[in-house]
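Project standup — Tuesday

K.O.: blocked on the structure for the chain from last sprint. Re-posting the sequence here as requested.
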Amino acid sequence: MTNVNSDDLVERYLSVWNEPDAAARQVLIAETWTPQGQYLDPALSAEGWTAISAMVEVVQQRFPDHRFQRVGPIDAHHDRLRFAWELADPGGACALSGVDFAQVAADGRLASVTGFFDSHA
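H.V.: unblocked you, prediction finished:
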């Protein structure tokens, strides 16, 4: 993972969740995830670019006009990342927060992300 900028990768990852346009989101997903990339949290799971995009759309419909943002630093070692995030409503109040653990593939994209929630909406 020596050639991976963790900050850029996590920002792209969060941008995927925030992108409302399906075509633009597909481009971000391809830049950020491997084709067989996997996502898993207590409520959702997806594998592959199409499923990840569909999952993001479901979350956007449940939380209209909310935005994901990173909270605090990124911990990184080997091919693993850990970072905290929150989902804020249009007024900036936190609706949901959690921590994601990611595995980075050799090409610098995400191979998998496992999310844990701190609070529930």
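K.O.: great, moving the ticket to review. The mean pLDDT is 95. The chain has three helices and six strands.
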